[in-house]
Every structure is written in structure tokens, then in C-alpha cells.
């Protein structure tokens, strides 16, 4: 009850605070360096393959910015640029490294520093960019609301979603996407039932969530022990769910597919089929962001980005580009 009361109080104050507090300027030291890892990953000239995915690009991203990294979600901004959000209250827009140079990078905080140190609205875990208008929807752990930003992040409004407070602070809206049919789908990392390590709660809004609007519910059934951390939609409309599992041997990653987006509907139990497992120790990491983009030859590329968890001596910020095999 105390948390709900605090949430309602904060919600009442948010519009005033956001009007009065200017947004911080972009980070002046936004240089990002791309270190090409693919040459060292080829075995006898062949590209590594993981199930239905072939690795066609691999980069380690570094920056002199001490706040760089910890990316927990990925979205497509336009034909050339991707957008990543971090769990340290930051966003990065960057040119895809498979594009011709010059590569551009832009970083900034999303929530004004006046909110730093507070329990809400700083741990970004999911993001979706509306292709019609470029607006950016971000979900946060420990917050009963989304934030909707203008394309340049100069304006923002909160969207109350008290349903998110049903999930633990560190297992919130990990996966989110605005689908081509207009629906907004959000999946929690938390297990839906204590007796199952496969089922996860999902929420469906018929469009962009509206403040206080109750969503429909469904369940996502993942491979045993894997938690859903990202949802993406391929150019052909199929859905991809990224799963993560931590073991004594490090992180394991699975990419799964939902062939028919209509399978996500109120009351449904949806079990995507695994199409790739990534346990290669050379690139094994905590992948939390994923998008799918069309290639010039009609194939589909799947991009993954890892969350370094502020552990730069153990984990890296890796960006992978994988080609989806035809006919999968």
C-alpha cells in the first residue's frame, strides 16, 4: 500500500517537474569506437553458424564516456541508425557499423539528473520506436509508468501503467514492441507462476498505452530457465523473442520465433520455437537487446547488443549482426 501511495504522489508531481526541468544536453564526449571481431571468429574462412543464424558481423563497442555501456534494449530508429537504452538512464543513437562511414553517435540522459538517486524512472529495460512518427516509448524497472519521448528526446510525457507494479523491481518490463498492427506488447522477465520456470506474464494494449488503461494478458512459454529479455518483429511480420539464462559457465542465449503475431491474444499461452542457441565462448555475453532489419537481398538481419552490467573487466558491449536462414 505504501508503494501505491508513493506512486500516486509521484504521478501527480511528474507533469509539473517535467515542465520546469530542462533536459540535459547531449554528452559532448560521445565518441564510440567499433572494434571488428569477425576476422578472429572465422574458422578456416567460414562464418560461425548458430542454428538458423549465421554471424556476419561482430563488434566490440568502447567509449571514453565513463557512463557508456549497460545497454538493455535495442530499437530501429531509421534505415541507417539504431537506438539503444541503458539501465543507467541513458540513450545512444548510433549508425549501424555495416553502413558506409562516416559513422555517427549521439548520447544523452533520458530523465533529468534531478531524478537521479530516486527509485523510479532510471533503469531503462525496454524500448520501442514508432516508425510512423519516430516517438520513443521506454519501459523502466520499478516504475508504474512508461515514458513517451519525442524523436529528439527534447519532450517527454509519462503514461501511467499501474499494472507494471505487479512485477518485482528487478524483473519488470524487459521486452516491449509496438507491432505492425498497432498493438503494444510487453513481456515481464518475472516467472508467471512459482511452480514453473518457463511461463512469463505478457500484456497487450490495442495501441499506444493510455494512462490508466488496463491491458489484456497472455503468457509466454520460454525454454526451461530462459527469461525473455527482448521482443522484435521481422520484416515479414513474424515475431522474435530473445531469451537469456545465467549458468555457472556464464550466460546462454536463445533466439525464438513466433510465426503468427495473432497468436498473441488475450488469455493465450504462446510458446515460440527456438531457432538459434548462442553459447560460443568467444562471443558469449549478456545479450538483452535485439532488432530485425531487412537486407538488400531480401533476407533478414538480426542484431543483438549486450549489457556489460558495469563489469567491463568481465563483460563487454558487443554488437552482433546475424543473418536469418531463408525458409526458417
The end-to-end distance, rounded to whole angstroms, is: 48 Å
Helical content stands at under 10%
How many runs of DSSP E, i.e. beta strands? 23
Strand content: 35-45%
| Element-by-element helix/strand order | HEHEEEEEEEEEEEEEEEEEEEEEE
CA radius of gyration: 19 Å
CATH topology: Tachylectin-2, Chain A
Figure out the total of helices.
2
Question: According to CATH, what is the class?
Answer: Mainly Beta
- The structure class reads mainly beta
Low-confidence stretches: 1-24, 114-120
Largest sheet: 6 strands, antiparallel
Protein name: Phytase-like domain-containing protein
Domain Phytase-like: 67-309
InterPro entries: Phytase-like_dom (IPR027372), UCP031900 (IPR014567)
Organism: Novosphingobium capsulatum
Please describe the topology of this protein.
Elements: H1 2-20, E1 33-36, H2 38-41, E2 49-50, E3 53-62, E4 71-76, E5 81-86, E6 90-95, E7 105-109, E8 124-129, E9 136-140, E10 145-149, E11 156-160, E12 173-178, E13 184-188, E14 199-205, E15 216-221, E16 227-233, E17 239-247, E18 250-258, E19 269-270, E20 273-278, E21 287-294, E22 300-306, E23 318-324
Parallel strand pairs: 15-19
Antiparallel strand pairs: 1-3, 2-3, 3-23, 4-5, 5-6, 6-7, 8-9, 9-10, 10-11, 12-13, 13-14, 14-15, 16-17, 17-18, 18-20, 21-22, 22-23
Amino acid at each position: 500500500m505504501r508503494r501505491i501511495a508513493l506512486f500516486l504522489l509521484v504521478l501527480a508531481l511528474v507533469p509539473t517537474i517535467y515542465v520546469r526541468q530542462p533536459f540535459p544536453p547531449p554528452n559532448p564526449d560521445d565518441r564510440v569506437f567499433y572494434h571488428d571481431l569477425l576476422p578472429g571468429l572465422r574458422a578456416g574462412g567460414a562464418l560461425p553458424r548458430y542454428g538458423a543464424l549465421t554471424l556476419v558481423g561482430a563488434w566490440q563497442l568502447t567509449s571514453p564516456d565513463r557512463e557508456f555501456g549497460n545497454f538493455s534494449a535495442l530499437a530501429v530508429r531509421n534505415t541507417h541508425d539504431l537506438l539503444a537504452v541503458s539501465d543507467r538512464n541513458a540513450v545512444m543513437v548510433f549508425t549501424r557499423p555495416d553502413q558506409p562511414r562516416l559513422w555517427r553517435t549521439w548520447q544523452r540522459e533520458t530523465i533529468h539528473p534531478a531524478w537521479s538517486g530516486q527509485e523510479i524512472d532510471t533503469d531503462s529495460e525496454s524500448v520501442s520506436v514508432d516508425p510512423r512518427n519516430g516517438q520513443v516509448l521506454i519501459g523502466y524497472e520499478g516504475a508504474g509508468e512508461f515514458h513517451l519521448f519525442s524523436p529528439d528526446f527534447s519532450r517527454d510525457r509519462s503514461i501511467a501503467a499501474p499494472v507494471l507494479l505487479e512485477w518485482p523491481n528487478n524483473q519488470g518490463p524487459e521486452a516491449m514492441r509496438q507491432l505492425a498492427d498497432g498493438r503494444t506488447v510487453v513481456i515481464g522477465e518475472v516467472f508467471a507462476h512459482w511452480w514453473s520456470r518457463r511461463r512469463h506474464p505478457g500484456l497487450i494494449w490495442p495501441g499506444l498505452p493510455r494512462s490508466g488503461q488496463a491491458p489484456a494478458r497472455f503468457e509466454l512459454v520460454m525454454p526451461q530457465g530462459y527469461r525473455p529479455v527482448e521482443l522484435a518483429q521481422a520484416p515479414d511480420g513474424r515475431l522474435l523473442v530473445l531469451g537469456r539464462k545465467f549458468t555457472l559457465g556464464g550466460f546462454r542465449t536463445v533466439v525464438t520465433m513466433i510465426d503468427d503475431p495473432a497468436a498473441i491474444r488475450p488469455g493465450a499461452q504462446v510458446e515460440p520455437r527456438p531457432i538459434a542457441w548462442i553459447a560460443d565462448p568467444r562471443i558469449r555475453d549478456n545479450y538483452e537487446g535485439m532488432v530485425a532489419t531487412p537486407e538488400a537481398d531480401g533476407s533478414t538481419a538480426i542484431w543483438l547488443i549486450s549489457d556489460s552490467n558495469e563489469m567491463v573487466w568481465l563483460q563487454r558491449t558487443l554488437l552482433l549482426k546475424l543473418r536469418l536462414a531463408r525458409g526458417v
